[in-house]
Design a protein that fits this description.
Blueprint (H helix, E strand, L loop, with lengths): L17 H11 L7 H16 L6 H10 L10 H12 L5 H10 L10 H11 L6 H14 L5 H17 L7 H22 L3
Length: 199
Amino acid sequence: MPATSTPLADRWPLRALLDVRDDLLAAWDRPGYHDLRHLTEVLDRLDDLDAAGVSFDKVPVVLAAWFHDAVYDGGSGAEERSALLASSSLPDPPAAEVARLVRMTEHHQAFPDDLNAAALSDADLAILAADPQRYEEYARDVRIEYANVSDADFNAGRAVVLTDLLAGPSLFRTPQGRSLWEERARANVTAEIARLSGG
C-alpha cells in the first residue's frame, strides 16, 4: 500500500475553511491508533480505490475521512459527535452528506449501491489488510486507546468486534476493495482473534 508524498495539510479538499482543516489536524494529533497516521492512511486508501475505478463523490467522501474520527476519546457516541462537528463546521452542501458518512463509520453498514459510504467504509477498514508489521502496530495502538480496560475485558471485547466483522459475506463493500484487501484482511483478523483467545 504505497503512501502519497503530498503533505497532509495539502490534502484538504476545499480551497476555503483552512481554519477548520487546522483544527482537525490538531484534533487528530494524539496517541493511539486514531491519529494522523490513520487519517493519512484512509486518504491513501481512497486514492487507491479511485485509481482502481471506484466512483464516488470525492469532496464529501474526503471531507468525511477528515471528520470521521475527529472526536475520539474512548467514550460512547464519538462518531455522532464527529458528525455533529462536521455539521457545525461545514456549509451545506456538503455538510449533511459528510455527517451521514461519518455516522456510517460507527458500524460500517454501507450498502453496495451507496458508493460514497462504500468507498469510505472500505478505506477505513483497509488497515485490516496491512502487512504484518503494520497490522501489529495497529493492534498495539488500538490497545493503547483502551489502556483503562483490563486485558481480559479488552481481549474479549476486541474478539467480539473482529468476529462480527468476519460474520458478513465480505469485509469490503466495493468489488475493488474486495479484490485489493479481502483475502489478507480476513487472514489478519482471523490470526488476531486466535491470539486474543489464546490460540
